[in-house]
Amino acid sequence: MTLLEARRIEKTFGRTHALRGVSVAIESGEVVAITGPSGSGKSTLLHCLSGIMCPEAGEVHYDGRRIDTLDEAARTRLRRDAFGIVFQFGRLVPELTAVENVALPLLFNGDGREKSATVARDWLERMDALDVADARPGELSGGQLQRVAMARALVTGPKVVFADEPTGALDSLAGEKVLGLLLEAARVNGSTVVLVTHDNQVAAHADREIVVRDGAAAGVVA
Amino acid sequence: MTLLRVAGMLGRGGSRAERARARLVAVGAALATWFLFGAANVLALHGQLDDRLGPIANRGTRPGTAFAFGLMILPIAAFLHQTGRLASADRERRLAALRLTGATPAQVRLLGALETTRSAALGTVCGAIAYVLLEWSIRGLLLHLPTTAAGVPPALGLAAMALVIAVAAVSGLLAGRHVVTSPLGVTRRATRRRPGRRVLLVPVLGCVPMVARFAGLPVPYRPYSLLLGAGLFAVGMMLSTSLLVWASARVAGRRARSAETLLAARALETDARPWGRTMSVLGLAVAIGSGTGWIEAGIMDDRHTLDPFWLTSFTLVDLALLVAMAVTAAALLVHQAEYLMEHGPVLATLRATGVADGELRRVLLRQGIIAAVLPCSVAALIGLLGLTDTGGLHNETWAWWPVTNAVLMAALGVLAATLTTKASQRRLQRAVSPGRLRTE
Ligand SMILES: Nc1ncnc2c1ncn2[C@@H]1O[C@H](COP(=O)(O)OP(=O)(O)OP(=O)(O)O)[C@@H](O)[C@H]1O
Ligand SMILES: [Mg+2]
């Protein structure tokens, strides 16, 4: 069943055509890697698929519903309820401890402080980062940061996990480990994973690879 | 001098925030000049003037009025200090290139101070010219006051300008302290520590003479030791405000039930000093405002009507307090801009992961509330208790006013601190736009 689909979407920034009619379809439970050279529009595609941005032309559908025409509030709700997002540099709140960072989405959902902290610790343990639970982001290594960021993305049990170069700032060994943890957790959760990367080794972990060139999907590697 | 030439060159580069800083520093300096010129102007007046001019009319109340004008420098200094820090990380990043060519950190910081000083000098000169022109035209064209009123004495005026520029220079030198630059151009904030607890000794020390007097113990050098104690207490409380803000933030962070409060409290806790600085000035305004309640009640109690002299005086005092609060709020606004600039990518990330705009706005709002409630309440209480027996009320008709006034003043202080959030709304929107997800 197709869970997430982009149909001929286009996006421009000033004179730059970041996306020129990309179409992709992602099945439920799939792990998809989006690859391509730098500047080809991978991040922009991810932002459009996850409802962070809206394309200027074309359509984005999630779970049988068109999402690019929803207003900002509705897309925010969707991202919060159904999506988990991981960025390259973790982007944790610097003043909060790791466990508080992970608990944050739950707190925003109205869960109590204790309950969210317990769930957050649980996820840190699954991500093999329980030892840094009470450290602040400034004290963490790149790999630890990413593991905490992943715990934050997974803590709400999202249907789709988006990750933009989650291992981009790590060496290949740490990258493998972090990626393995993410994919394992997603599999247990039954989450679909959309992974942006320019690393072939990372892409090899995916069920399918979508190659983007100059803002258009150039091919699909199974 | 090459350093000056480099400073000039660098002045032309710079981000939007840095250009805003230059302009804001100039505005602050101009404002400070205005108030100092106002003080000098009042001191230079001769003879008795129309009663409707309030405290300026009498010879006896002029030094006090001039002092009040001078006090207005405090909120403006807080504003200047805050604006001088705006985008200082940007500046250091820009100057990091100089480090590669062999400049020392001290030299780089000196360059930063030169930039601030230059903007302040520009603002001071413009402010002075505008003041003199305006004063001259009002006196000559509107009031037809030839001899009884004199303008700003040149010596005092020059001293005032020098003072403003000096304050800006010192503030500029201090601005780079918390930024760590390596020759590689990596810039980050050094970890900010908790404000020191030793400052609490100052207000405690200031209390000693007063406590001794109430306990019936002999107090040597009576009026002076009491005055000194009161002065120490006031300054000490202002210095301790950062600690007060930090403590509020810590408690709020521990007990936070919502994500918004947690984010607000933790941000405040790591950044208590700038908030404390501005809150100390806001607190001073609240304390003075709450103290005036007794004086007003005493006079109403005495006379039952208001003659023009007192009416003007009250209005002027209230106006001055409002201006002081507004300037302090502007300083907070600048600080909030800095917070948004620094936290832009992180806030944009929260936004991307499904945190609503309204929730982020609430984070800003709660920062203001957590920072302001305790200092403003303490300040109102001090103003109320400190001036208890000055009014000397004979009957109870007006006894309700001082307490009401103190509550109003505290509320006004908190309001000033939270209204800045409203003004930051557009900036917040820009800070969390998806484009910010791209910057590291
Ligand atoms: N907010 C923006 N403002 C201006 N231009 C943008 C913006 N976002 C993307 N672009 C441009 O759109 C094009 C695609 O950018 P995008 O970030 O999607 O590429 P990418 O494939 O993710 O590259 P990389 O591998 O380097 O991350 C680039 O030319 C980029 O400069
Ligand atoms: Mg990218």
Strand content of chain A: 25-35%
The CA-CA distance between the termini of chain B, in Å, is 37 Å
**How far is it from the N-terminal to the C-terminal residue of chain A, by CA?**
17 Å
Overall number of strands of chain A: 10
Bound molecules: adenosine-5'-triphosphate, magnesium ion
Short description:
Chain B: It comes from Actinoallomurus iriomotensis. Chain A is α/β, with parallel strands linked by helices and 222 residues long.
Overview of this protein structure:
The complex is a heterodimer of chains A (222) and B (440). By secondary structure, chain A is an alpha/beta fold. Chain A has a single domain (2-221), classed as P-loop containing nucleotide triphosphate hydrolases (Rossmann fold, 3-Layer(aba) Sandwich), CATH 3.40.50.300. Chain A is 36% helix and 28% strand. Chain A is built from seven helices and ten strands. In chain A, the strands form two sheets. Chain A has a six-stranded mixed sheet with strand order 6-7-8-3-9-10, sandwiched between helices. In chain A, α6 links the parallel β7 (160-164) and β8 (192-196). In chain A, α3 (98-108) crosses α4 (113-126). In chain A, 51% of the residues are buried. With 440 residues, chain B is an all-alpha fold. Chain B has two domains: 2-189, no CATH class; 240-437, no CATH class. Chain B contains 14 helices and two strands. Chain B has helices at residues 2-12, 16-43, 62-71, 73-85, 88-100, 105-143, 154-175, 201-214, 222-255, 259-270, 272-303, 308-352, 357-386, 400-431; strands at residues 179-181, 187-189. A two-stranded antiparallel sheet of chain B has the order 1-2. In chain B, β1 (179-181) and β2 form a beta hairpin. The longest helix of chain B is centred in the last third of the chain and has 45 residues, at 308-352. Mean pLDDT of chain B is 83; it is low at 184-188. Magnesium ion is lined by residues 42-43, 164 of chain A. The site of magnesium ion has 3 residues of chain A, from α1. Chain B: Keywords: Cell membrane, Membrane, Transmembrane, Transmembrane helix. Chain B: Pfam families: FtsX (PF02687). Chain B: Residues 67-182 form the ABC3 transporter permease C-terminal domain.
